[in-house]
Specification:
This protein is 75% helix and 0% strand. By secondary structure, it is mostly helical. The chain folds into two domains: 53 residues, no CATH class; 93 residues, Serine Threonine Protein Phosphatase 5, Tetratricopeptide repeat (Alpha Horseshoe). Helix 1 packs antiparallel against helix 2 and helix 6 packs antiparallel against helix 8. The longest helix has 16 residues. The C terminus is likely disordered.
Length: 152
């Protein structure tokens, strides 16, 4: 029940941009993990909370651990790849996304699979950023016409 409440708080952050909900979710998850360190759903939520906070190195650590616990859970491979992309580790991210596709070929996995090559091309063009993910989001938004001037 606590995990469901934490998950609802995380969703509320997305809907409202009120990050106090994220703090509430984090406190709940910390409590669940204090009582049961092996609570898999709470471990996943902890990773999701840290992703929302842009603590990508921590997400990578949590996701790597989760892939060892449940190597067939595509969500873990997705968060691992996403954190690696944000950290600029494109080759490693590509490997995580490949694993995700191998486990479940769907839109979420295929969409991610194209990101590492895109970022490599951007690096070759001389684009540098302290936030590699910002350029990814910008390019993805243009590609899918989510911003003015995007591809049609």
């Amino acid at each position: 029940m606590q995990n469901l409440l934490a998950s609802a708080y995380i969703q509320k952050v997305r809907e409202s941009t009120d990050f106090t909900y994220l703090d509430r979710a984090s406190k709940i998850v910390d409590g669940v993990l204090s009582a049961d360190a092996g609570n898999y759903e709470a471990m996943r939520l902890r990773s999701e909370i840290e992703m929302e906070r842009h603590h990508f190195a921590q997400v990578r650590e949590y996701s790597e651990a989760l892939t060892k616990i449940a190597s067939d859970d595509t969500w873990n491979w997705g968060t691992l790849g996403d954190s690696l992309m944000e950290l600029g580790e494109y080759d490693q991210a590509g490997k995580a996304y490949q694993k995700m596709v191998a486990l479940n070929s769907n839109q979420a996995s295929y969409n991610r699979l194209g990101l590492p090559p895109l970022c490599h091309r951007e690096r070759q063009r001389g684009h540098r950023s302290d936030d590699p993910g910002s350029r990814i989001r910008e390019l993805g938004a243009r590609k899918y016409s989510l911003v003015p001037g995007g591809a049609r």
